[in-house]
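Service request form, structural biology core

Requester: graduate student, group of Dr. S.
Request type: structure prediction, single chain
Budget code: on file
Notes: please return the result as C-alpha cells.

Sequence provided:
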Amino acid sequence: VWTGEVLPDESGGFAVTPESLCLGLYLLGAVLIAGVMAWQVVRIHRLRRGAEISRTGDYTLVRTRQEIASFSFLRTIYVWDQTSKLMGHVACTILPMELAAILAHESSHIAHRHSIERILMELMKALLWWNPFAWIAARRLTEAEEFEADNDVLNSGYNRAEYMQTIFRQLFGYSPEIANGLRNSLTKKRFKMMTMQTKSRHGLLRLA
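Core staff response, request fulfilled:
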C-alpha cells in the first residue's frame, strides 16, 4: 500500500503577501519624500556657487546669481543678486529698504529656529506620507511661521504698506519647500493677517 507524504517546499521562493506589498509601498513613499527633501538641501547648497557670501554675528548672507525668491535655511539667508543680466537686460537691484525688510523677515525665522521645525515636519511627512493630516499640519505650520515672522517685522517699525509691496515683489523665483521664504501660496493669507489685530492667533495656530 502506497501512502502520500507532503514534503516541505525547499525552493526558497519569497511568497508575496498583502502585508509585504503594503510594506513595500509604504517604504517606497517614505524614500521618495525623504529623497525630495535631500535633493532640496543639495540644491540650496549649490546656490553658493559663484555667490557673494558675507557673514554677520546672527546669519550668513548669500547673494546668488540664480533667480530665486528670498528665503532662509538654518542660519543662512539667500537673496537673488539682481545685478546679473536677465534675458539681455540688467534687472533692477533690490532697494535698500526692501533688502532690510527681507533680512528682518528671514532673521525672525532664524531666531525662532523655524528651519529645524520645517526639517522635523518634512521627516514626519516622510514617515506618515499616507496620512493627509500630516500634510495639512505641515501647511498650517508653514503659515504660522510666516505669520510670526511678519508680525516681528511690523513690530520692529516697518511700514505695513511698503512691507506688503516688498513681499509682492519677492514672489517670483525658486523657493524650496524645506526653507522659510516669501512664497506665493501664502500671500493672500499673510496680507489679511497683517491687517488684523490678532497677535495671539499666531502662537495658538503654531501650537495646534
